[in-house]
Amino acid sequence: MNDLFLRACRGEAVERTPVWMMRQAGRYLAEYRAVRAKADFLTLCKTPELAAEVTVQPVDLVGVDAAIIFADILLPLEAMGAELRFVQGDGPVFPDPVRRAEDLGRLRRADVDATLGYVFDALRVTRRELAGRVPLIGFAGTPWTLAAYLVEGGTSKQFTHLLEWSYRDAAGLRRLLDLIAEVTVDYLLGQVAAGAQALQLFDTWGGLLSAERWREVAAPSLVRVLEAVRQGAPGVPLIYYVHGGAHLLEASAELPVEVLSVDWRMPLSEVRRRVGTQRVLQGNLDPAVLLGPIADVEARTEAMLRDGAGGGHVANLGHGIFKQTDPDHARAFVAAVKRLSPALRGA
Amino acid sequence: MNDLFLRACRGEAVERTPVWMMRQAGRYLAEYRAVRAKADFLTLCKTPELAAEVTVQPVDLVGVDAAIIFADILLPLEAMGAELRFVQGDGPVFPDPVRRAEDLGRLRRADVDATLGYVFDALRVTRRELAGRVPLIGFAGTPWTLAAYLVEGGTSKQFTHLLEWSYRDAAGLRRLLDLIAEVTVDYLLGQVAAGAQALQLFDTWGGLLSAERWREVAAPSLVRVLEAVRQGAPGVPLIYYVHGGAHLLEASAELPVEVLSVDWRMPLSEVRRRVGTQRVLQGNLDPAVLLGPIADVEARTEAMLRDGAGGGHVANLGHGIFKQTDPDHARAFVAAVKRLSPALRGA
């Protein structure tokens, strides 16, 4: 049983740095594309055997130290009654965005077993197939990030509708965030019951807010989720990832999580200097490095390991792996962490 | 002659804080939309009388303390030989992206008088129409940001091609950046000769890079531009704006500019704490505030002025004004700066 990742998340001394990659179950793998050719994206998410198959692929093919269940952060919104489509090239689309308090009547507090049971089934199948080789990570989006997509109706450059609502009717938006938070608690506890051994919260759009506004608008519903999950599933490591959040470091370090997952924009040593050495850091090689020469992948991975050696560290990319990545370069990254980190621990 | 903006940029003591807004000549104004109904976007850019007309509109209609010439940062790339289209809803498109050193042969060092003379003409017409009421700002994109669009073929979520090139062939990309820099120097000096009294460099995509990589990849060509313009147009204040650059603050404070224009994500007081009080700061009200109630616009503008009072300050938004903004809210912002700042200077 390789529980290196879980021990590192808990801040225990480990023999080497564990490594996995955000979006490691994805299009850069021909084996993933072969599965995807048989099923559209939502069908893949909702077919436990297929979701489990692609979840396990990078463990076998790339050698990562953790699996992360294949799913989409937006699935709970569909479970709450919002129609969700994935349009080729355009990403997720909510044809009927929720933009004011009156729209909240269209959403319901989902029964997660009835509506998201396929994710729990996928976790159970995956745990069986992993057979203890590596731990399995569950995940969810933060309420703020889910609201961002639901309010805009999809992705956006500026999230004007979301920000407009936040200034026009903060109380109304808070009701949406709280409703998403309630469902997210059930969803994450259901994931743990089904076999998830650690949980990552993805805050893709938290960085839109200043620290003051993030604390005021986005953090309360997120803290509610984290505290309820902590209480319902004690001992399960919690990881918070925010994209473009260099200005939120100190604020996010107040969250009740074991691990802060940081993007590639700031050196791990500087993050530690600002948030202290209590938190385990996850990250943060620029995923674009994997598009360059393998010698460079190795050199930059070594530099990242040295930079992160001042405290607990889970190696990862600073963002999801690009679909254009040559799998050999992903393997070079993973192998470099495994080969180089034993000598660099505490360097 | 209202030269308040220029004096504030130079760090002189001023009687009140000057104020203007990024994208102040734009779609939130019915008067702009009326002009735009007569001409497509590129035609508007290339017709000096029309460009001058929309440049002056916010001075008359909103009461800002500076005008900024109506143009697009991508025009110099078209002048260099890249075909540029503006597709309704999709923004700028370069149908033939430049993605490797071999593609550089398709670009030429543009003769800016022959290819961008319409911008110079627009500046001359605007200066005449302003008749000294407020100063006129010229601008350009940074070489890195222009390259971002040219390499991707338009805007992008992740700028994979650009980043890939930066790791695969740093020297080749540097040649592109240097070529853009040469044209940008001529273009900015031409703007000054035609009447621009201050120059802003827009680095929309600088924030994609870590500080180390920004210094290595993006900064050298930008510094070359700034130094050449400084030498060719001494006394003209230079302003650097980077979007999403909280992690680049210390690095960008090394640039030879008078003014750092910062987005809404970080309080001005914290920016000063990190970069010192030598630089004048420009910004940084969240443009989404203008979508909320006027009482909130006024309260948050006052808070921003108090926060920025520890040194030289030019009031602005932290990003371009949203097209959905009610002009009355823009006027409330400008009026609040004028009304409140005299008492708050040095508060």
What does this structure look like?
The structure is a homodimer of 347-residue chains. By secondary structure, the first copy, chain A, is of the alpha/beta class. Chain A has one domain (4-344): Alpha-Beta Barrel (TIM Barrel), CATH 3.20.20. Chain A is 48% helix and 12% strand. In chain A, the strands form two sheets. Chain A has a seven-stranded parallel sheet with strand order 1-4-5-6-7-8-9. A two-stranded antiparallel ribbon of chain A has the order 2-3. In chain A, helix 4 (48-61) packs parallel to helix 6 (112-130) and helix 9 (170-193) runs parallel beside helix 10. The A-B interface holds A 155, 157-158, 160, 163-164, 166-168, 207, 209-213, 244, 246-247, 264-267, 286, 288-289, 291-293, 296, 319, 322, 324 and B 155, 157-158, 160, 163-164, 166-168, 207, 209-213, 244, 246-247, 264-267, 286, 288-289, 291-293, 296, 319, 322, 324.
Structural class of chain A comes to alpha/beta
Distance between the termini of chain A: 27 Å
Number of strands of chain A: 9
> What is the oligomeric state here?
homodimer
Placed side by side, the strands forming the largest sheet of chain A appear as 1-4-5-6-7-8-9
Order of helices and strands of chain A: HHHHEHEEHEHHHEHEHEHEHEH
Give the overall shape of chain A.
Answer: globular
Low-pLDDT runs of chain A: none
Beta-strand portion of chain A reads 5-15%
**Which CATH architecture of chain A is right?**
Alpha-Beta Barrel
Q: What kind of sheet is the major sheet of chain A?
A: 7 strands, parallel
